[in-house]
Amino acid sequence: MSAPASPAADTSAAQLARRRRHDAWWRGWREFRRHRSGVAGLVVLTGFVLLALLAPVIADAEGLSVTRAQGGVLQPPSTAYLLGTDDNGRSVLTLLIWGARVSLLVGLMATVISMVIGTLVGLLSGYFGGWPGALLFRLTEWFLVIPFLPLAIVLASVLGRSLLNIALVIGVTSWTSTALLIRSQTLSIKERAYLERARGLGAGHLHLLRRHVLPNVAPLVFANTTLTVAVAILAETTLSFLGLGDPTRVSWGSMLEDAFRVGAITTGSWWFIVPPGVCVVLVVLSFTLVGQALESVLDPRLRERR
Q1: Who's near 268: CB < 8 A, 6+ residues apart?
Q2: Where do the H-state alpha helices sit in the chain?
Q3: Do 170 and 235 form a contact (C-beta atoms < 8 A)?
């Protein structure tokens, strides 16, 4: 009978695993820095995240109140109001800064919901055969063929107008692409030799999924997350523009909806409609660039094509 492993051996094994993870992260970061577009997107995203986190320091929250607004109606940009005012006399710059918080928060919450649902459905439908896997795959296809916007509008109208409901609606309606991606990867992984050996040694389904399949699909989930955030932010902007957002919160989408309602385009009040639109475009583009760079870093086949 072999002797049990000593604590020193366990410690050295843990240190070796940490060192390998550290080296892997460092190699990934070096590869990521070669993508100039990805680095540029990361810089822009960092700026928007800092803007959202420091909103209480940069802009007073009282500037969001309609009753305390001191500016004129749709006042052009000036030294007092760098981006002009809205139809209630509030500073557009203040609305833009605080709107970043809501738009990014809803986008991240919706992405987490979408990733959890998509990863679970993809793993289970790809790993289990027979009718359970077929049923989950048919469910994914059913959600895939339903137009996103009508379904999101119906769900948002039924659930009510709140940040949590909007994030839930976007997450529930945008998980299908993740599920298909994870399913295809799971189908490939479950046929590999080391999984067969683990199964032969008596490993159960939960152990195989948790220790072998999930770690192998995690990089794809991580890369796809950045792309899903961009879709979620764009979806939040669309729903808020249609008047389905939280009426008590200011987001970039609600700013665009207010600008459209008061006719900012016809009156030439570009300062009310251009800044939030530019912010949405920059954030969505930045997330897309970062996601594409991460895909290239985490997928060796894409690196070979460069």
Answers
A1: none
A2: 7-33, 36-53, 55-58, 92-127, 130-145, 148-159, 163-173, 176-189, 193-200, 205-208, 214-241, 252-261, 270-298, 300-305
A3: yes
Q: Is 247 exposed, middle or buried (0-12, 13-18, 19+ CB in 10 A)?
A: exposed
| 160 φ/ψ angles, rounded to the nearest 5 degrees | 110, 170
∠ CA 189-193-195, rounded to 5°: 60
Residue 100, exposed/middle/buried by CB under 10 A (0-12, 13-18, 19+)? buried
Amino acid at 193: A
Which of 148, 149, 103 has its CA nearest to residue 287?
103
Quote the tokens at residue 128. Answer: 């289990």
Give me the tens of pLDDT residue by residue for the chain, a chain 306 residues long.
Answer: 445 555 555 556 667 667 776 676 787 778 888 888 989 999 999 999 999 999 999 988 888 888 888 888 888 999 888 999 998 889 999 999 999 999 899 889 999 999 999 999 998 888 887 788 888 888 888 888 888 888 888 888 888 888 888 889 888 888 888 898 888 888 888 777 777 777 777 777 777 787 778 888 887 887 788 888 888 888 888 888 888 888 888 899 889 988 988 888 888 899 999 999 999 999 989 988 888 888 787 765 555 445
Q: State the residue for tokens 């399949």.
A: 213
DSSP letter at 16 equals H
Cα–Cα distance between 206 and 189 in angstroms, integer? Answer: 15
Tokens linked to 74: 């749709």
DSSP notation for 220-248: HHHHHHHHHHHHHHHHHHHHHHTT-S-TT
Find residue 91's DSSP bridge partners.
85
> What distance in Å separates the CA atoms of residue 115 and residue 138, rounded to the nearest whole number?
19
Residues 6+ positions from 125 with CB-CB distance below 8 Å: 132, 133, 134, 136, 137, 140, 179, 183, 186
